[in-house]
């Protein structure tokens, strides 16, 4: 394979985000003049060149530390193929970046045995077809390396300053991850120990592309003891630890076409890991809950660009979608004021029971849950567990509302919307059921949901205003009397017994109600209108009319 850059072509070797590579060196005019040809190790031209070493020794390994590009005329090379292979093995074992041989003095063409040995060890071998001044090569390359090292030191200071400032200002984990992605130009993912992508900064790539099949890809990438490339995609992985205990990891995804990792990438991930650990120690412990809340809001608000992106994000957080239905639940806190940590506790309870769910606060006092169930499975047992746990933790007046199950994440917003309608309709403490669904909304629940509507308030005032005024002025119980009468479907004797009044006293109150309202209580339609008004009054006041006089 012939690699012959055009004369005068230069390389951006001083780029602050990458180290000098063999490919960069081959583009330098001082080497382009030698008509370089790569005859072995073509796929390793992205190797870093730490230094250039000119040697004619047959055993140069004792002078090398690894990463050197070796320049030689081949003068000491033996004819014996075994000794040639031993020479190449030395270079490969020490970690030399590559071998450059200039033709003309010793060789007119590179020996086949040398090419074969280099190919067997995957060592880049470059042949120069014209003579070049090795001293010019070393001076040029070393100057570039030193410049790059100086720039790296300056950028290292900048990186340190960025993460120090984030730490001092109490940055959230998402901000730290975003900063790391901006500095490297590569997607960065913060994972927990079970490979859920808690935060993802895609660095300009589609988030769905970054997180595609994330659990499978992540499980196939081992976590090294320190920052290093790992797995089939050569991710740069940094373990997150404190006090000898690992609690997560940071993952940098290199470009799929050029997986070169620079020292700066390593520095950024190391500093980001330190900042994240300090943030964790400072009390930012709701990272996973924040990630769930963000994911839930994105689904509810339809902020995903494609269905694939929505599915990918959900699956990266551990919510299976393929072959499952998802069901939305809303939990309204009860009278207990201690609600901190409820989402974390609920998520732990669900996980312990084998349920897969996203859990997060959607607004003060309301927690959202999206559970995944196999399409042939039942969601009711999970909803019942959620309801009982909510009543234990948030009070017996906590309410759990459930929307319809959907197979398409694009319908999650509708499921939450229906759950919201149920939540609005269920009065706290009105039922001891663990959860409620749309079919539980009858007329009383509908009126409770509409209690703040001025049209309902005006209706109540028109139908019952005179009775309410009379009771307030005289300390009467006409509203309660009407309630008993309507509750007994117009059976006066049963209503009188229920009210604890004599029949005569009860009948007298009914006649007074008819006179004040101008209604005939024997009329079915008029009785229905009054019954609706009485139920609406109960919804508006939060008390049963039979105790309004109390």
Shape: rod-shaped
Record the strand order, biggest sheet: 1-5-4-3-2
What's the total number of strands? 14
Assembly type: single chain
Largest sheet: 5 strands, mixed
Radius of gyration: 38 Å
Enumerate how many helices there are, as a single number. Answer: 20
Low-pLDDT parts are: 1-17
Question: Share of helix among residues?
Answer: 40-55%
Q: Estimate what percentage of residues fall within beta strands.
A: 5-15%
Outline the structure in words.
By secondary structure, the chain is α+β, with helices and mostly antiparallel strands. Helices cover 46% and strands 15% of the residues. The chain contains 20 helices and 14 strands. The strands form three sheets. Strands 1-5-4-3-2 form a five-stranded mixed beta sheet. A hairpin with a 2-residue loop joins strand 12 (356-363) and strand 13 (366-374). Helix 3 runs parallel beside helix 4 and helix 18 crosses helix 19 (503-517). The chain is rod-shaped, with a radius of gyration of 38 Å.
Q: Quick recap of the structure?
A:
With 550 residues, the chain is of the alpha+beta class. The chain has helices at 22-26, 29-32, 81-94, 112-120, 134-168, 173-184, 207-211, 214-219, 263-281, 287-301, 307-316, 342-352, 380-394, 412-425, 443-449, 454-474, 478-487, 492-499, 503-517, 524-541; strands at residues 36-40, 51-54, 68-72, 98-102, 125-128, 188-191, 197-201, 228-230, 235-242, 245-252, 324-332, 356-363, 366-374, 399-402.
């Amino acid at each position: 394979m012939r690699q012959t850059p055009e004369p005068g072509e230069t390389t951006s070797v001083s780029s602050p985000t990458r180290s000098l590579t063999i490919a960069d060196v081959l583009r330098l005019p001082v080497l382009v003049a030698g008509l370089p040809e790569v005859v072995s190790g073509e796929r390793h031209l992205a190797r870093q060149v730490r230094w250039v070493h000119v040697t004619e020794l047959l055993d140069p390994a004792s002078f090398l530390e690894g990463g050197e590009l070796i320049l030689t005329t081949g003068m000491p090379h033996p004819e014996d193929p075994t000794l040639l292979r031993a020479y190449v093995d030395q270079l490969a074992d020490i970690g030399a970046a590559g071998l450059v041989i200039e033709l003309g003095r010793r060789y007119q063409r590179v020996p086949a045995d040398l090419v074969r040995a280099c190919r067997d060890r995957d060592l880049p071998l470059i042949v120069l077809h014209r003579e070049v001044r090795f001293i010019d090569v070393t001076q040029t390359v070393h100057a570039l390396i030193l410049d790059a090292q100086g720039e790296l030191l300056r950028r290292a200071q900048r990186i340190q300053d960025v993460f120090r400032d984030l730490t001092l200002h109490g940055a959230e984990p998402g901000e730290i991850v975003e900063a790391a992605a901006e500095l490297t130009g590569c997607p960065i993912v913060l994972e927990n120990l079970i490979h859920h992508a808690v935060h993802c900064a895609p660095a300009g790539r589609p988030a769905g592309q970054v997180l595609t099949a994330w659990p499978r890809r992540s499980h196939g990438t081992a976590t090294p003891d320190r920052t290093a490339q790992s797995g089939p995609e050569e991710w740069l992985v940094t373990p997150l630890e404190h006090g000898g205990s690992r609690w997560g990891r940071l993952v940098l995804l290199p470009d799929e076409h050029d997986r070169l990792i620079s020292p700066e990438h390593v520095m950024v991930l190391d500093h980001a890991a330190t900042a994240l650990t300090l943030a964790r120690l400072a009390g930012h412990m709701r990272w996973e809950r924040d990630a769930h809340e963000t994911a839930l809001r994105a689904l509810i608000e339809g902020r995903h660009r494609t269905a694939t992106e929505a599915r990918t994000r959900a699956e990266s957080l551990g919510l299976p979608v393929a072959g499952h239905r998802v069901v939305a639940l809303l939990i309204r806190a009860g009278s207990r004021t201690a609600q901190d940590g409820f989402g974390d506790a609920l998520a732990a309870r669900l996980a312990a029971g084998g349920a897969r769910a996203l859990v997060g606060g959607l607004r003060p006092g309301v927690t959202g849950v999206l559970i995944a169930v196999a399409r042939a499975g039942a969601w009711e047992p999970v909803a019942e567990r959620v309801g009982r746990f909510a009543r234990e933790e948030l009070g017996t007046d906590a309410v759990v509302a459930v929307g319809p199950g959907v197979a398409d994440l694009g319908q999650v917003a509708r499921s939450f919307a229906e759950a919201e309608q149920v939540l609005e309709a269920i009065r706290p403490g009105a039922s001891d059921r663990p959860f409620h669904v749309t079919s539980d909304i009858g007329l009383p629940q509908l009126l409770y949901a509409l209690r703040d509507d001025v049209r309902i308030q005006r209706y109540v005032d028109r139908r019952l205003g005179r009775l309410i005024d009379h009771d307030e002025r005289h300390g009467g119980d006409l509203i309660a009397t009407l309630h008993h009468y309507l509750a007994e479907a117009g059976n006066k004797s049963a209503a009188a017994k229920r009210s604890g009044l004599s029949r005569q006293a009860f009948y007298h109150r009914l006649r007074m109600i008819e006179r004040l309202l101008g209604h005939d209580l024997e009329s079915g339609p008029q009785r229905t209108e009054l019954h609706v008004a009485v139920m609406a009054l109960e919804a508006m006041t939060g008390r049963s009319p039979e105790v309004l006089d109390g």
